[in-house]
């Protein structure tokens, strides 16, 4: 291979690498909604681009592979040229590294990405056809290499590859908020949408002890009165035990049965009005569960634990509250807010507030991370659970523990069954929180 071929090869490889870098950046920054609009406007390439977006992660993985291969090829050509013209090998290596670093950073890292970021739809539309052909020819190679990388990586690898993950989108949202493009509340909402895919139904459900239910032997009138007293519009109907859920009764159905009844629904059994219950495992993630509930037009799901018992229940409202925050209606006036600010460094939180939400509260207020050891993070999910973990027993009202720079005091009293129950936890921030983080 002569010198001219090496020079032309290095230049061609860097130009191609820059073009691929531009396409990669553009493809990461376009929205499906906008591409669908372009397709309706019959823009050339829009139909093909829709197909590309449907498998965006696969195409970005392929682009990363091609860019890496081209940059490596250019580096080899430049190294061969340096050795040819410079007799001192150390100097030749230095010149080759400096040259390829400069060109790679300027052409691929800055120029190409700037073009892709400024003109994402133009670049994507013009490259969609070529990208589809490349994906057909080289896509299997990219998947094999990702499989090999995931096999070598510690822990569980990323099935779609690490190059097109939601981490980049999260970072973009954070940057947008820092520059005032996105408000703080909007950023939280967007981040919450991302979290739906990793949040389990168990973590946001109404736990079994807090469920309001009605027995199958009750009448429609009984169920109507219970709905009015509790402020709920849907009630699980149980058979012999709480684990024996036979259906769900809706207030709307009850009203239709009892409104014109002369005996206020006493002659109608609740089993005659109820609808089939919808059962799902409590380990199901909220993203999939929300989609299923929308398809089935079901507003209430009964969660089943690994032993087949009823773990709790979850409504669509509970899932939406994970995105937009607490939703209070006219019947929720007696409900406590998840977090109540009592004064300087003092808060009252719901006993079942998650550790993740507690961590977010401390970070937002003080800019300090709560640090727990792995056992706590694996075993404990709620603030009340943290007290129980530290004490080694079921906590009672008045129990106090200090952990991770916080003092937690259990608050509560007798429930409707006469049992001691922790309803809220008083959280006091200690000076130790602001020292070097200490693991517990």
From TrEMBL:
PROSITE patterns per the UniProt record, alphabetical: CBS, CNNM
Gene Ontology, cellular component aspect: plasma membrane
Membrane-protein topology: Multi-pass membrane protein
Regions that span the bilayer: 6-30, 64-86, 92-111
GO MF: flavin adenine dinucleotide binding
Keyword terms: CBS domain, Cell membrane, Membrane, Repeat, Transmembrane, Transmembrane helix
Subcellular location: Cell membrane
InterPro entries, A to Z: CBS_dom, CBS_dom_sf, CNNM, FAD-bd_PCMH-like_sf, FAD-bd_PCMH_sub2, Ion_transp-like_CBS, Transptr-assoc_dom
Chain ranges of the CNNM transmembrane domain: 1-186
SMART domains in alphabetical order: CBS, CorC_HlyC
Domain CBS: 205-264, 273-330
Family membership noted in the UniProt record: Belongs to the UPF0053 family.
Name assigned to this protein: Magnesium and cobalt efflux protein CorC
Organism: Corynebacterium choanae
Lineage start: Bacteria, Bacillati, Actinomycetota, Actinomycetes, Mycobacteriales
Gene from which this protein is expressed: corC3
């Amino acid at each position: 291979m002569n010198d001219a071929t090496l020079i032309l090869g290095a230049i061609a490889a860097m130009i191609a690498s820059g073009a691929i870098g531009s396409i990669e950046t553009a493809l990461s920054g376009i929205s499906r909604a906008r591409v669908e609009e372009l397709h309706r406007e019959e823009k050339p390439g829009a139909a093909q681009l829709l197909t590309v977006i449907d498998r965006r992660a696969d195409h970005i993985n392929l682009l990363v592979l091609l860019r890496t291969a081209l940059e490596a090829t250019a580096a080899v050509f430049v190294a061969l040229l340096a050795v040819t013209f410079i007799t001192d090998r150390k100097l030749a290596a230095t010149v080759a590294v400096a040259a390829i670093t400069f060109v790679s950073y300027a052409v691929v890292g800055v120029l190409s990405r700037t073009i892709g970021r400024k003109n994402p739809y133009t670049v994507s539309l013009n490259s969609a056809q070529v990208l589809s052909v490349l994906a057909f020819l080289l896509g299997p190679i990219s998947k094999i290499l990702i499989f090999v990388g995931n096999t070598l990586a510690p822990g569980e690898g990323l099935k779609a590859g690490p190059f097109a993950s939601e981490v980049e989108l999260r970072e973009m949202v954070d940057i947008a908020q820092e520059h005032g493009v996105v408000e703080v509340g909007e950023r939280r909402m967007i981040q919450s949408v991302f979290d739906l895919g990793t949040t389990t139904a168990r973590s946001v459900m109404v736990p079994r002890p807090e469920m309001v239910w009605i027995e199958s032997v009750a009448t429609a009138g009984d169920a109507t009165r219970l709905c009015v007293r509790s402020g709920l519009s849907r009630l699980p109907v149980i058979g012999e035990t709480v684990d024996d859920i036979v259906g769900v009764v809706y207030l709307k159905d009850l009203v239709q049965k009892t409104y014109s009844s002369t005996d206020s629904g006493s002659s109608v059994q609740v089993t005659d009005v109820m609808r089939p219950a919808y059962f799902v495992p409590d380990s199901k993630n909220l993203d999939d569960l929300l989609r299923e509930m929308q398809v089935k037009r079901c507003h209430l799901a009964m969660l089943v634990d690994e032993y087949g018992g009823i773990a709790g229940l979850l409504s669509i409202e509970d899932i939406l509250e994970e995105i937009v925050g607490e939703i209070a209606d006219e019947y929720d006036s007696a409900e406590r807010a998840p977090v109540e600010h009592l004064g300087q460094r003092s808060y009252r939180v719901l006993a079942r507030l998650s550790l993740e939400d507690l961590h977010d509260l401390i970070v937002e207020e003080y800019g300090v991370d709560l640090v727990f050891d792995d056992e706590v993070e694996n075993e404990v999910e709620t603030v009340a659970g943290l007290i129980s973990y530290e004490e080694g027993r079921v906590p009672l009202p008045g129990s106090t523990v200090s952990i991770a720079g916080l003092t937690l005091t259990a608050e509560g009293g007798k429930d409707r069954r006469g049992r001691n129950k922790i309803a809220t936890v008083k959280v006091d921030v200690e000076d130790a929180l602001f020292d070097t983080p200490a693991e517990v």
